[in-house]
Amino acid sequence: MALTLGLLLLSTPSARALPEQALVPGGIALLQLPEYKQGTEVFFKNRRIAVFPHDNTWYAMAGIGLSTKPGDYEFSIRRADGLSLNTKITVKYKKYDEQHLTIKNKRKVNPNKADSKRIAAESKRKKKAKKLFTETAPRVDFIWPVTGRISSIFGLRRFFNEQERRPHSGLDIAAPEGTPIKAAADGTVIDAGDFFFSGNMIYIDHGQGIVSLYAHLNKIDVKPGDVVKQGEIIGKVGQTGRVTGPHLHFAVIANQTLIDPVFMLPRNGNKDREIHRDTNENAQSKDDTQ
């Protein structure tokens, strides 16, 4: 049996511990589930998404991919008793700026044959981490892994040595080399090691498809399988991989989708967040007129 139900969509989360909704490519869609029953599963664009309790209410959270076109998209709520409920959201257009960077190590822009073989093998590890879905209810009240100047925002169209590459998939936070990096939330380390482009990198599973990523470290202090608590030191800031200086590349994945980490992070955790948020809001307001 299938019904269409206008469940409450959150325009602005009421609790500080919830992520911030942004119905744009690279953003987050939050869905309140006022009549949640155990065993309920929620899907967005045919992928199961995270469901979690907060303040005696249940919520579902979907990541909206950068390639998502403006328009209506549907949540599908499937209850254990066989009832299927549907509700829609409208994703708005958003334009992301360009960023041009000069990389001194030209192999990090145009890898040789041996490098390409290594990159292909690492790509399989990345996809495995990205697709992981465990049943643990996620903790979504993230903290800043480091604080500092936001040197590169999410979604930028990137050009390395004037060659276009994939859009920036995370948030770059500039910090002195050796600065301790904290786990953004409770979780389990999925993978950790040296990657060609990302340098020393860590993946942490937070449950139900929500994964955080920490790249370009100069030191990794955890290993796959380690259970970490929010705020625990997992490594130190570095400049390994394809970089122009020391910083942390912090990324968040939800339902196999890279999203803007700033929407998962508290406003009062880093003064530079408000600058980034204002830039996002101004760009969105401008883009909405197109």
Written overview of the protein:
This protein has 290 residues and is mainly beta. The chain folds into 2 domains: 90 residues, Sandwich (Immunoglobulin-like); 190 residues, Distorted Sandwich (Glucose Permease (Domain IIA)). 12% of the residues lie in helices and 38% in strands. The chain has 2 helices and 21 strands. Strands 10, 13, 14, 15, 16, 17, 18, 19, 20 and 21 form a 10-stranded antiparallel sheet that branches. A 5-stranded mixed sheet has the order 1-8-7-3-4, with no helix packed on it. Strands 2-6-5 form a 3-stranded antiparallel sheet, with no helix packed on it. The chain is globular and about 55 Å long. The N terminus and C terminus are likely disordered.
* Helicity, as a percent range: 10-25%
In the predicted model, the low-confidence regions spanning at least 5 consecutive residues are 1-6, 11-16, 277-290
**What percent of residues are in strands?**
35-45%
Number of strands: 21
Instruction: Give the termini separation.
Output: 40 Å
Shape: globular
Encode the helix/strand succession as letters.
Answer: EEEEEEEEEHEEEEEEEEEEEEH
Question: How many discrete domains?
Answer: 2
CATH fold assignment of the largest domain: Glucose Permease (Domain IIA)
The tally of helices reads 2
Give the averaged pLDDT, no decimals.
84
Radius of gyration over all CA atoms, rounded: 19 Å
The main β sheet shows up as:
10 strands, antiparallel
CATH architecture of the largest domain: Distorted Sandwich
Q: Which structural class matches the secondary elements?
A: mainly beta
In CATH terms, the superfamily of the largest domain is Glucose Permease (Domain IIA)
CATH domain class name of the largest domain:
Mainly Beta
